[in-house]
Design a protein that fits this description.
33% helix, 303 residues, Rossmann fold, alpha/beta, 4-stranded antiparallel β-sheet, 10 helices, binds adenosine-5'-triphosphate, 6-stranded mixed β-sheet, globular
């Protein structure tokens, strides 16, 4: 959903240091209500510090933070029921079942057991409701952490690497849950190192490094503006480097296990030339991705 004129979260020139380390350096970002917003960046980029300032767990040294029109610090009791937080370290009441745990969390908000059942259903854990939280699988654990974050129906949800350490099937299943949450229209601040997920899910992303925002926009816009273009992978033995260099519209040539990889922003034109040259059988088209944008920003060689 697009940002509205009445943002859910506003960060204005926010900075935070730990001693000599400037963890967050003059960050200005506005997140719209209903937006699925990705906070991306390498380890130590400042994501956690930034998010903890939004959650009211840390106070900025400089700048202002507003969440739903309120300041999160000093600890704002009006705001707490309106935000939900899932973290890597989400704690559970270990002796309890999944349902008992959620009923307890609901009670902390003064809410009835029925909301726990609703949350269980939302995250697809109804059938696992009676499993002890110590015995749930990795995927179920992440679902339970998300259920704990949304049990009180908050307006703003923070999700910190919810698909980390999951096997591919569990990750895919959880991706489906994230899409359902997104469709629910809540404001979601999402941290991940899985850039394919961020590309698929996020309305906009901020890419941070060394405490600063290097890029801020929709994945589509960032990809378009990056100029990375499409890679066309031509199987080995079909095209010499010399022939490749003569094709109009090719911006760069790489080699990958004998295959020739052409970079272009004029895909149709280059494909037409390839078709005329030796046919298009098994020529693979790889559009630019958010990961390309990220690697470009980090100054790393691209795959
Ligand atoms: N409590 C702290 N005391 C001192 N330095 C800290 C503290 N917390 C974070 N830092 C430092 O601040 C910088 C930003 O850390 P932060 O945890 O916010 O980054 P991050 O992007 O969340 O990293 P990760 O992806 O590893 O969680 C890093 O250099 C980190 O070492």
């Amino acid at each position: 959903m697009p940002a509205t004129d009445d943002p859910a979260i506003v960060l204005d020139s926010v900075s935070k240091s730990y001693g000599e380390v400037r963890a967050v350096d003059d960050v200005t970002v506005s997140i719209g209500r209903g937006e699925f917003f990705g906070m991306l960046g390498p380890n130590g980029a400042g994501k956690t510090t930034l998010i903890e300032m939004i959650e009211g767990l840390r106070t900025p040294d400089r700048g202002t933070v507003r969440v739903l029109g309120m300041s999160p610090t000093p600890r704002n009791l009006d705001l707490l029921p309106k935000i939900g937080v899932q973290t890597q370290r989400s704690a559970f009441f270990t002796r309890l079942t999944a349902r008992e745990h959620l009923v307890t969390v609901a009670a902390l908000y003064g809410l009835p057991a029925s909301v726990a059942d609703r949350a269980l259903k939302l995250v697809g854990l109804t059938d696992s409701a009676d499993i002890r939280v110590t015995n749930v699988s990795g995927g179920q654990r992440q679902r339970l952490a998300i259920a704990s974050a949304i049990v009180h129906d908050p307006q703003v949800i923070f999700l910190d690497e919810p698909t980390a350490a999951l096997d591919p099937q569990a990750r895919r299943d959880l991706g489906q849950l994230l899409r359902e949450l997104k469709a629910g229209g809540k404001t979601i601040v999402y941290t991940t190192h899985h850039l394919d997920e961020a590309q698929a899910l996020c309305d906009r992303v901020a890419i941070l490094a060394a405490g600063r925002v290097l890029a801020l926009d929709s994945p589509r816009e960032l990809i378009a503006r990056s100029g990375v273009g499409t890679r066309l992978v031509v199987p080995a033995g079909r095209l010499s480097a010399e022939q490749a260099g003569q094709i109009d519209g090719v911006d760069g040539i790489d080699f990958e296990d004998g295959a020739v990889v052409l970079r272009t922003t004029q895909t149709a034109r280059v494909l037409a030339a390839l078709g005329a040259e030796g046919g298009l059988d098994e020529v693979e088209t790889r559009p630019a991705t958010l990961e390309d944008v990220y690697l470009q920003l980090m100054g790393a060689p691209q795959a």
